[in-house]
Amino acid sequence: MCSLLGLSYRFFSYALFLWIILSWIQVSSEHPIGQLKKVLDSFFDQLLAPIRNMIPTLRIGMAGLDLSPIILILGLNYLVLPILSRMVC
User: Fold this and answer.
1) Tens of pLDDT along 1-39?
2) CB 13 within 8 A of CB 73
């Protein structure tokens, strides 16, 4: 049970980091990487929308920095990892 939870958490974390990296890259939606990006966009945009509503985008000159993925990563690290470490397998 806890190995399944740990594996799920690890998969989610890797998918989130992949989505962050792909958000910096312009890829055609017909390309396989573009299709993966579209799937990850639809999943993580819904997940990050409540965080984005509470925390505004950080403006640096003309650019904006979205802090919601960082907040999600920190929140999961403080909530999920202690639970997984206390589970006895």
Assistant:
1) 567 877 888 899 999 999 999 988 898 989 999 999 999
2) yes
Class of residue 24 by CB neighbours under 10 A (exposed 0-12, middle 13-18, buried 19+): exposed
| Alpha-helical regions (H) of the chain | 2-22, 32-54, 68-86
Q: How many residues does the chain have?
A: 89
User: How is residue 8 written in tokens?
Assistant: 């799920």
pTM tops 0.70: yes
37-46 contacts, C-beta under 8 A, 24 or more apart: 40/15, 43/15, 44/15, 44/16, 44/19, 44/69
Question: CA-to-CA distance for 49 and 44, rounded, in angstroms?
Answer: 8
Output the furthest CA–CA distance in the chain (Å, rounded): 50
